[in-house]
Amino acid sequence: MRDLGIIEDGAVLISGGKIVTVGTTDEVAKHELLTSKPSHIEEIDCRGKVVLPGFVDSHTHPVFTAPRLIDFEKRTAGASYEEIAAAGGGIRASLRGVRDSSREKLAEHVRTAFDDMAVLGTTTVEAKSGYGLSFAAEMKSLEAIREASHQWAGTVVPTLLGAHVVAPEYRDDPEEYVRIICEDMIPAAAKLKLAAFVDVFCERGAFTMEQSRQILRSAVEHNLGVRAHVCQLTPEKLTPLIEFHPASLDHMDFVSDEDISALARLDTVVTLLPAANYFLGLKAFPPARRLIDSGVAVALATDYNPGTAPTPSMPFVLSAACTHMKMSPAEAIVAATYNGACALRLQGRKGSLEPGKDADIAIFDASDHRELAYWFGVNRCRETFLNGVRQTAARINL
Ligand code: NIG
Ligand code: FE
User: Fold this and answer.
1) Which atom of ligand 1 is nearest to the CA of 161?
2) Which residues place a Cβ less than 5 A from the ion ligand 2?
């Protein structure tokens, strides 16, 4: 994770949405596409800039309609995340807006979030449902993600998170809600190809380990990928989840040393989400050093959501990871690009600048890669290429 393979005076040649070749400017200039048909070539001068693979934001919850300002204000007055949720705030407070909105309206919100992300250098986004909490509202949420993804040049990976919390109607019968997820939501999402993954919030106040296992088992039976929110607020033993070969386990603030050793032998990625710790005002941050030093593949993502991480900014996440988790700037960049791609099982197409991969590129006004994690509260991304489609700062109103 410390080796970025930096090419000084580098160049990237892209064509038809794919990377054709990467190397020094001299090497790339010799490519036959450039020597044979020079009139079709557009050159972008990146001298003095950092050119990166676009960020892969592998954990976001963009399907909501309104910020949770009451929760926010309560927290500034000292209430904790769990106290606010128990008092009727939290995830369930976002439910009404989603249930009452049309698919088009939701898609508009999601599309706005994707645009905000692209401005900051993100070109691939994993997007979860999870604020509808009924069959109809979860399907509508996934359809909104699909609609927004058709309007956006970047790549979107949809995830069903019907198992975010138990829907209020089933508070006294959570098993029935789990049954609806397993027997209705997952089969429909798989059949309609509305989701690539199923996620579950395995946590006190959300779903127990046994319920989480039921849900993930159904996901595997329907050939969907598996990921989980776990060890965010309380410790949890991970062996019962690992059995389902999760692509990623996310948050992991309370992971044990024993589970870290087990994870180091697997290709499951651990996705850390420090924007949530920042926004909840927590003193402790996810244990990046213990994980990386033990050989676990660590990714970084925003967790973009209205309750714990209302930020579309991967550069902010890089800053938090370096400042509060002692990741090096190079490690943070790898975690936000290649390892994020691994967390979505897209490393063959995304996450690095290599011939044959999708032309997902972010160009920063910085002369050293360490500046990406150094500046915060300012956007240094000037241009992005999303599957080869160019978005300049002017076009996105910076
Ligand atoms: O990843 N932990 C569960 N889900 C979100 C929070 C969702 C919310 O509060 O709206 C998270 O932090
Ligand atoms: Fe999350």
Assistant:
1) 4
2) 303
Burial class (CB in 10 A: 0-12, 13-18, 19+), 32: exposed
Structure tokens at 181: 């997820």
Mutation pick for ligand 1 pocket among 229, 308, 317 (CB with most ligand atoms within 8 Å): 308
pLDDT tens-digit series, residues 338-358: 999 999 999 999 999 999 999
- Average pLDDT of 386-393? 92
Place of tokens 């199923």: 198
Give the pLDDT confidence score for residue 392 in this predicted structure: 85
Distance CA(359)–CA(247), nearest Å, equals: 24
Per DSSP, 153 falls in state: S
Task: Answer whether 274's CB lies under 8 Å from 317's CB.
Answer: yes
pLDDT, tens only, 40-91: 889 999 999 999 999 999 999 999 999 999 999 999 999 999 999 999 899 9
pTM attached to this predicted model: 0.97
Residue pair 341/301 in contact (Cβ under 8 Å)? The answer is: no
- The 10 Å Cβ neighbour count of residue 87 is 13
Distance CA 142, CA 132 (A): 10
Tokens of 262: 């087990």
Cα 23 to middle of ligand 2, angstroms = 37
Sign (positive/negative) of CA torsion 99, 102, 107, 109?
negative
> Counting ligands in written order, which one lies closest to the CA of residue 84?
1
pLDDT over 80 (residue 173):
yes
- Please answer whether residues 18 and 358 qualify as being in contact, where contact means their C-beta atoms are separated by less than 8 angstroms: yes
For the CA atoms of the chain, what is the radius of gyration? Answer: 21
Cα 252 to ligand 1 centroid, rounded to whole Å: 13
